[in-house]
Design brief:
Strand content: 15-25%
Radius of gyration: 27 Å
Number of domains: 2
CATH class of the largest domain: Alpha Beta
Number of strands: 16
Largest sheet: 12 strands, mixed
Distance between the termini: 22 Å
CATH architecture of the largest domain: 2-Layer Sandwich
Number of helices: 20
Helix content: 40-55%
Length: 588
């Protein structure tokens, strides 16, 4: 069935493994997820916590944690071997190292920045590139930044239910370990009068420090925590029950016997009693064009993904759609513009992040000098390119006229209209991605294309554009990718003339009943068949889409939440059939 990927071992490329994972969420009431200052703070917080945990675990060398930080969400993962190894105690060491990291993170967030952190720690199936090795000892991986798995979904859901500023520990973690080191650094909140679930077990983050005699003075640390709570209470920002929760925890810590202080080690400088300081970081956000997608129904797919079929389906959707378009587009730019084309490709190749059901395509904005150099070359190069591809004379003449009119830079002219180059690339990547997901796996999505400040690397995804994209994606409502016309320069929507105002693009950028502009993903495919003069593929494509939509509709009859989204897709499909004069309409 199209919506049930086959799980043939010969086709499997990616494999999830058993992992220890912590999912943390920083309360945003005192944490601005859009500023450079907050970005620097969370980098300091992560780096200090990481150094602390690694120093305490230095006698038991292990590969470093894998960490992803997306705005106010922090995910930390470690390989948690499926089989218990009594000789090395690897799982115990992994757990202790994770506790050190989480304790430092929660402590420093609170005393340095007055940030409240809640989270959930568990074990389960997880895929994160390069965290695990394949059978040949080589790192598993893909060319996209991919985080996926049942453990991630479980931690997210459990953390969502946790209303208190603590890091909850899954009881299953403690089942295999009665070690005193573990038992001394947890606390049962059953005595907390506001607790709705008396079985919740939290990490005793001060207990982690207080049970290691070389880390500073426990009394000073407790006093610092108490002073911080007083300062937070005066701000009158957080709900009373959260403050009572923390005060109850403080009473719990005070009531426990403290290990006498020994000679402090270098670790004292990291966490006690004053938070660490980090060197000045010159990392800055840059301007990016992004497409932000939400794969609908992904949580259910992940929870049913015991054999990684949906993990590999997601990889296949990317490989068979956006990845192929990317290679084709890169080749086109290089063929047309030579060395300049290679420079453009370095910008136009998107960074891609997949975080469970959310996908980000990000293209950094090209500098003005390069875009001006490219624009000067385009009028003469495009004609030659179309001729080499066998385009008919009428299309070449029409394109040449429009492109000569459009790609001209007058002195003092605002060049923002040339941003359409990037919007066009993102429409192709995401439009083909949307098509393949729907055709092959009956997988709908929604999202947006926008522009803004962003920082990206292997650990971080940070910037105001993430927040605005998340809001826009929710406004999309229907399974469509909308364009942020407030931040993107799209000449076709401003009544301007020129190359990017062609009739073809008017089809690709559709306007819905609610006045939102979105990517006409079926029109995008059909326009390609028109340019290549292969009308029979147009008919085959629309009939295949009809089959997928009919199957999707039939399997969701009675689902009041899903069915309206399918009906929207059918309505759009029927409009496309009418525009392209193909008999593939769906009658409901």
């Amino acid at each position: 069935m199209p919506n049930n990927p086959q799980n043939e071992s010969t086709n499997k490329k990616l494999r999830s493994e058993n992992a220890l994972i912590a999912y943390l969420e920083i309360d945003t009431r005192l944490f601005d997820t859009t500023t450079q200052e907050s970005f620097q703070k969370i980098k300091n917080l992560y780096e200090g916590s990481f150094v602390f945990s690694e120093q305490l675990a230095e006698n038991y060398p292990q590969p470093p944690f894998k960490v992803k930080i997306y705005a106010n969400i922090v995910v930390i993962a470690d390989d948690f071997m499926s089989e218990w190894d009594a000789h090395t105690g690897r799982r115990l060491r992994s757990l202790m190292r994770m506790n050190y990291f989480l304790a430092a993170f929660q402590h420093l967030a609170l005393v340095k920045y007055n940030w409240l952190v809640r989270g959930y720690m568990t074990t389960g199936q997880l895929y994160m590139p390069h965290i695990f090795e394949d059978e040949g000892g080589m790192p598993q991986g893909t060319d996209i930044d991919f985080l996926w798995g049942k453990a991630l979904v479980e931690a997210y859901k459990k953390n969502k239910k946790n209303q208190y500023p603590g890091i909850e520990i899954d009881a299953s973690i403690l089942d295999f370990c009665d070690d005193q080191k573990i038992n001394r650094i947890i606390w049962d909140s059953s005595h907390y009068e506001y607790s709705k679930n008396p079985k919740i077990i939290f990490l005793d983050f001060l207990g982690v420090f207080n049970n290691i005699s070389t880390i500073g003075d426990p009394e000073l640390r407790i006093q610092k925590f108490s002073d911080t709570l007083d300062a937070i209470e005066k701000k009158e920002i957080f709900p009373e029950d959260q403050l009572i929760f923390l005060k109850t925890y403080l009473d719990h810590v005070k009531a426990k016997p403290q290990i006498p202080r020994q000679q402090p080690s270098v670790k004292n400088n990291i966490v006690d009693p004053e938070p660490f300081t980090s060197p000045v970081d010159t990392t800055e956000m840059k301007e990016y064009f992004i497409a932000y997608l939400d794969m609908l129904g992904t949580e259910d797919k992940i929870e049913d993904d015991d054999d990684d079929r949906w993990l590999n389906a997601m990889e296949e959707i990317y490989d068979a759609s956006s990845h192929d378009i990317l290679k084709s587009n890169n080749q086109k730019w290089i063929e047309m513009l030579g060395d300049l084309g290679e420079r453009m490709v370095s910008y136009l190749t998107p960074q891609i992040k997949i975080f469970s059901d959310n996908i980000l395509f990000a293209i950094e904005e090209v500098d003005d000098d390069l875009i001006e150099a490219v624009i000067k070359e385009i009028p003469t190069k495009v004609t030659s390119y179309l001729q080499s591809k066998g385009a008919d004379d009428a299309l070449i003449t029409e394109t040449q006229t429009k492109i000569e009119s459009y790609f001209q830079i007058e002195e003092g002219e605002d060049t923002s209209k040339y941003n359409m180059i990037f919007v066009d690339e993102l429409m192709k990547y995401t439009g083909y991605f949307q098509n393949y997901a729907l055709l092959k796996y009956n997988w709908q999505l929604r999202g947006c294309v926008t522009k803004g400040q962003l920082y990206l690397d292997e650990k971080y995804m940070w910037g105001p554009v993430i927040i605005q994209a998340n809001d826009l994606e929710k406004n999309a409502k229907e399974p469509r990718i909308i364009l942020d016309t407030m931040r993107l320069s799209v000449p076709i929507l401003e009544g301007k003339e020129g190359f990017y105002e062609s009739d073809d693009l008017k089809l690709i950028i559709q306007k819905d009943d609610d006045m939102m502009h979105y990517i006409g993903y079926e029109d995008l495919i059909l326009n390609g068949t028109k340019i290549l003069n292969i009308p029979e593929q147009c008919i085959q494509y629309l009939r295949a889409m009809k089959s997928s939509l009919c199957e999707l509709y039939g399997s969701n009859i009675g689902d009041g939440q899903v069915l309206p989204k399918i009906e929207w897709a059918i309505k759009y499909h029927n409009e496309v059939c009418k525009r392209w004069n193909v008999d593939a309409r769906i009658e409901l």
